[in-house]
Amino acid sequence: MALPRQPHRVPVGDTDGFEPTPTRPVRVRARHLPIDTHFVPHRHLWAQLAYCASGMLQVVAARGLDASDEVTYIVPPSRAVWIAPGVRHAALALEAADFRTLYLHPDVSPPGWSTCRMIVVSDLLRELIPALDQAGGQPAREQALTLLVLDEIARADTQPLGVPMPHPETGDKRLRTLCEAVLHEPGDRATLAEWAGSVGASERTLARLFRAELGLSYPQWRQQAVLAHALPLLARGLPVGEVARRCGYASDSAFSAMFRTALGQSPTHFGPRARSTAD
Question: Coil, helix or strand for 20?
């Protein structure tokens, strides 16, 4: 039940030159992020698609513009997080990552996308992002690629893989400490009773806080955390047995059964071999 270390916080940086406009509604900002790079909480007037061509990100965002609680997303290269305009968010590089931020003018947001969500990055969108990044100075090509990017985003499948978190200021500090520790080490299968001594709250109090602040029981919440941790490992090609072990499961079959129940597909469906076969 080890508590996580505090990452190094850095400012967001200047967005001049990348702000989307009605005539250039999608801008791509490419950066390499060393491990543990942490962008402090901030917000934009525009929408954002947080995506990494390699590596892994953790994105923490408010549920919506006026929401008081947060959702944490673990983002492998096969996924991206849509952050609605004005929503407070932060990002952490869990691995060294080639970060590709898409800034999108509010006028081109898909209808109804007023909250954050995780989307599946299609093969076409994966190729369009660097192409758009390199299209500067070619207005006709940039316009054509922009239309394709917007269409792919609007058509993308979504996955309910966010992990709700207590609000950093108004949420219960003991609950947030527990949640951050589980996200840091999801293979630790400590019970609420075992966590109680570490965070300074009784088992009954912690159970009540999970329901009151996150709307889930502890087992339901932990399952979301495990799924968020497992997907990037599977996408990197780790064997199912190794991923199951890292997530605290004693057997592959129990882990696979949980995965099928939650996502409707086996863990192997999310590995690189399955994607290459589909290609």
Answer: coil
Question: Which residues contact residue 152 at a Cβ distance below 8 angstroms, ignoring those fewer than 6 apart?
Answer: 122, 124, 125, 128
187 falls in which pLDDT band (50, 70, 90)?
confident
Query: How far apart are alpha carbons 205 and 222 in whole angstroms?
Result: 17
Amino acid at position 117, single letter: R
d(CA 143, CA 132): 9
Distance (Å) of CA 186 to CA 91, 181, 238: 19, 8, 16
Number of CB atoms found within 10 A of residue 17's CB: 7
User: 158: which strand partners?
Assistant: 119
pTM value is 0.74
**Residue environment code for 200-236, b if the CB has 16+ CB neighbours within 10 A, otherwise e:** ebeeebbbebbeebbeeebeebbbbbbbbbbbbbbbb
Report the greatest alpha carbon distance in the chain.
62
- Asked if residue 277 has pLDDT above 50, the reply is no
In this predicted model, what pLDDT tens digit does every residue of 243-264 receive, in sequence order?
A: 999 999 989 999 999 988 887 7
What is each CA distance from 235 to 10, 101, 163, 227, 271, in whole angstroms?
A: 28, 20, 19, 12, 5
| Contact of 103 with 19, CB cutoff 8 Å | yes
**Residue 63 contacts residue 85 (beta carbons within 8 Å):** no
**Which residue carries 């996955």 as its tokens?**
159
Q: What are the structure tokens assigned to 69, written together?
A: 């609680």
Which residues are CB-neighbours of 248 under 8 A, at least 6 positions away? 186, 187, 188, 189, 226
Torsion sign across C-alpha atoms 221, 223, 225, 228: negative
What is the number of H-type helices and E-type strands within the chain? 9, 12
